[in-house]
Design goal:
This protein is an alpha+beta fold. It has 3 domains: 71 residues; 103 residues, Phosphorylase Kinase, domain 1, CATH 3.30.200.20; 153 residues, Transferase(Phosphotransferase) domain 1 (Transferase(Phosphotransferase), domain 1). Helices cover 39% and strands 17% of the residues. It contains 12 helices and 11 strands. A hairpin with a 7-residue loop joins strand 3 and strand 4. The radius of gyration is 23 Å and the shape is globular.
């Protein structure tokens, strides 16, 4: 029997084609890389077809009974893996206002990936800056990207300048068609100034498995209420104050509330979506499709703080947080600034006058 030709011997086999929810789940779990799951990145048409088939099989709306949460988590993992392979926004990208030299992916969220970029004005005047390009995995989430762009532009226009560091800086928002996408559907891209030296509350909680000292948590709690008070004063509600969306700078005691894709501006309305893997963290009005209010944000923020401290929180703090997380939305606090004043009184009773306390992370 003759040897196969060199091109046949070296060509990697196509991944098996999943036909059921469980087969798609197994394929996702066993894949060590995007190429292993979708096929070679150079075969863009085949990789796109493979992705669409997996996404269809794993979609929460078509999941077997009782497995919606499992499907939602699988879809998020699928999209993150696809984001590492997708050729979207590689190289140089030019918009009406900026030229971006696009680098590697720096983060993968639930609906979008973030790539590092060096931005300079297209007109040639003005300094260059470090940025990130936030790109949805699927064009179906363009509306959420537009929500974020609108909220950030609104806050920049109507918010108090002294509080603008509490939210990301939007450079611009634009649509772009990935040349490697066979469907050729435009995606909404949000260009943001890059934040360095920050970590999420989820990462901070992992660094302190026994819970963070309440005296260290205090400044994070206060700054989170300032971020919310700043937004609420302009009639913007964040809608998804979750541990991954709160960034802190340990050395400088800075805080930035990110991911405004679920934000509402103007009159309160139902949330456009929720982060499914955090469904149990949301207050009842979100899943019930009732309006998201300032009290919704305060509930979610309080949940983050309670989780961060864990069992370290003294009883008065636990009681304070419980009042912020009551199931009935009308019974919760709605004014973040008033809540901040009440928190300051509690902190002074517990720990005395405020002093700067360095946050020291455990050695790696």
């Amino acid at each position: 029997m003759s040897e196969p030709p060199w091109w046949a011997a070296s060509r990697p086999p196509d991944p098996p084609r999943p036909r059921t929810f469980d087969e798609a789940l197994a394929a996702l779990a066993s894949a060590a890389s995007a190429e292993e799951l979708f096929g070679p990145s150079t075969a863009s048409d085949a990789a796109a077809r493979r992705y669409r088939r997996l996404a269809r099989l794993l979609h929460p709306d078509t999941a077997p009974p009782g497995r919606r949460a499992e499907a939602t988590a699988a879809c998020a993992a699928l999209n993150r893996l696809r984001g590492t392979q997708h050729g979207y926004c590689n190289g140089t990208l030019t918009t009406r206002r900026h030229v971006y030299e696009v680098g590697a992916q720096v983060a993968a969220g639930d609906i979008a990936s973030l790539r590092a970029a060096r931005s300079r004005p297209r007109a040639g005047n003005g300094p260059a800056s470090d940025a990130v390009l936030k790109t949805p995995y699927t064009p179906a989430d363009n509306d959420l990207m537009e929500r974020e762009a609108h909220a950030l532009a609104w806050l920049a226009r109507h918010g108090e300048p002294r509080f603008r560091s509490y939210v990301p800086t939007l450079l611009e928002s634009f649509t772009h068609v990935d040349p490697a996408d066979p469907a050729g559907v435009p995606r909404r891209v949000n260009a943001l100034l890059r934040l360095d030296g920050f970590l999420t509350l989820a990462e901070l909680r992992a660094a302190f498995p026994e819970g963070l000292d309440p005296r260290d948590t205090a400044w994070i709690w206060r700054r989170l209420l300032v971020a919310l008070g700043h937004a609420h004063r302009t009639r913007v509600r964040h809608g998804a104050v979750l541990p991954e969306h709160v960034l802190i700078h340990p050395a400088e005691h800075g805080l930035v509330l990110v991911d405004w894709c679920y934000a509402g501006t103007g009159a309160p309305a139902a949330a456009p979506a929720l982060v499914e893997r955090h469904r149990d963290r949301y207050p009842p009005e979100v899943a019930a499709r009732r309006p998201v209010t300032e009290a919704t944000d305060i509930h979610l923020a309080s949940s983050c703080i309670a989780e961060l401290m864990g069992d370290q929180a003294p009883r008065p703090m636990r009681s304070f947080l419980a009042g912020c997380m009551l199931p009935a939305e009308p019974r919760r606090p709605h004014d973040a600034w008033r809540l901040l004043a009440e928190l300051d009184q509690l902190l002074e009773r517990l720990y005395g006058p405020r002093t700067f306390r360095p946050l020291r992370l455990p050695a790696a």
